[in-house]
Design goal:
By secondary structure, the protein is an all-alpha fold. Helices cover 62% and strands 0% of the residues. It contains 16 helices and no strands. The C terminus is likely disordered.
């Protein structure tokens, strides 16, 4: 195994995000037992509940934080997500229950992808206007399934769009795009940010370009095709399983540990219309 420089190691594992955040937490709290406080913080990171009610800059700062936020969202919003089809604004409000300043941009990306998949799988005649997109209703699970992909791989996808698509989001460098995908795994090793499985990327490019016949395809077609590929779904499920297994193992070994936000995983709480009446709120840092 190649030995990384100190800077490369810190960058690959995004350690500065957690170290800086832990120090800021210690300084702001001024506790008498900083070692215990640091342990609580790192325990919270380990089990994945450190992102609940944190600002978007923090929860989006590392791949691990993004995965943890997706897991937390599944846990705390599961019952509410079964209420029936929702609008894009409804879905945005749901995410803001776990991350108060979650921006609209990532919501739009996931919503447009989920809506495109829904339209492609039905015989619905659709009005492709912004108002129609915003007024449409989809099951929260359909939206969230696409959010897992667009949010988890946002950095890589936006980099592809910047390099190989023009201002109208049409592919202008098809051959270069194919070569870039072949080197996707190397990019992940260097940056520490995840990339979709190469098999999924290759299949998505083929489908979006109609097997090379339409090389000027739209970026959204690539994202939609990618979102439907089973290898990518399997990869995300595996990442979710790994984090949950680590969390369960830690909680079993440390039953009294509650992490730095003061809550066990099963005690996660967010402010909703129901618990607001009871006077309960999710804790904000």
């Amino acid at each position: 195994m190649e030995t990384l420089s100190s800077e490369a190691y810190l960058r690959k594992h995004h350690l500065s995000v957690y170290l800086n955040d832990a120090v800021n937490h210690l300084v702001s709290s001024q506790v008498d037992n900083p070692a215990d406080c640091l342990l609580d913080y790192l325990s919270g990171v380990l089990v994945g509940n450190h992102v609940l009610n944190r600002d978007f800059a923090y929860v989006s700062a590392t791949p691990y934080n993004r995965r943890a936020l997706l897991n937390v969202t599944k846990d705390v919003l599961q019952s509410m997500s079964e209420a029936g089809p929702m609008t894009m604004a409804d879905c945005h409000n749901m995410l803001r229950m776990v991350c108060p300043d979650f921006p609209l941009g990532p919501i739009k990306n996931a919503w447009n992808t989920a809506l495109a998949i829904h339209i492609d799988s039905s015989d619905t005649v659709w009005e492709p206007s912004q108002q129609a997109h915003q007024a449409a209703r989809l099951p929260f699970s359909a939206f969230f399934s696409c959010l897992e992909i667009t949010f988890s791989y946002e950095r890589y996808l936006m980099d592809l769009r910047k390099k190989f698509f023009d201002a109208s989001k049409r592919c202008i460098k098809f051959s270069e795009l194919k070569r870039e995908i072949c080197d996707a795994s190397k990019r992940e090793e260097v940056s520490g940010w995840p990339v979709p499985p190469i098999t999924s990327l290759e299949a998505a490019v083929l489908e979006a370009s109609s097997f090379g016949k339409q090389t000027g395809f739209e970026f959204r077609k690539l994202v939609v095709a990618l979102s439907c590929h089973k290898d990518l779904r399997n990869a995300l499920e595996e990442e979710e399983k790994k984090l949950r297994t680590r969390s369960n193992r830690h909680n079993h070994a440390n039953p009294s540990n509650k992490g730095h936000n003061g809550k066990n995983e099963e005690d996660r709480q967010v402010e909703t219309p129901r618990n607001r009446k009871k006077g309960t709120r999710g804790k904000t840092h």
